[in-house]
Amino acid sequence: INALASWLHEDYVELLDEAGVYNLKMIQEKTESMDNLINGILKYSRIEYDKLESETVDVNEVVKHIREIIFVPEHVQIVIMNPLPVIVADDTKIHQLFQNLISNAVSHIDKDEGLVKISSEESDTHWKFKIEDNGVGIAREYHEKIFKVFQSLDAKEKSTGIGLSIVKKIVDLYEGEIWLESEPGSGTCFYFTLIKK
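Structure (tokenized):
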């Protein structure tokens, strides 16, 4: 559908009035949203059935790679506050986990100078990570709801409401916990733990 709408736009844009161009653009946006939703559902449903690989994962490199592949506006900085650990885990799952949380943080920054801070600490049994932003914040009544599938606080069409449920599922696979501290207007801080292997 998206390809067809693109062809129509390319071939007939001169013949269409403003409403026609708007409607074609709307078709393209809606099919892109639908595609994102379907991909999100597939990722979510596969998480617990995919075989968990055990490999050495440098979380510093994971964050560096995510910085390169997601859109980070010029006014937003992503800062690693202390050297992150090298862990034994499934590289793809760890990428999904950090990418969802970092993308989420970046997209909800409403300040002229945005900041996402990433840090970690170690206990005997778990790694504990913290991803903190200075964005819009989340009201307390939504702190549990946001981890459920299709729950999004974002009215934007681009949000599928699946990202944080994927995060929760991955954390569960590693016998960890995830929670947040946040108030509207004062940013959000996500904490999560992953079992050490």
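The mean pLDDT is 85. Helices lie at 2-12, 18-46, 59-69, 91-107, 163-173.
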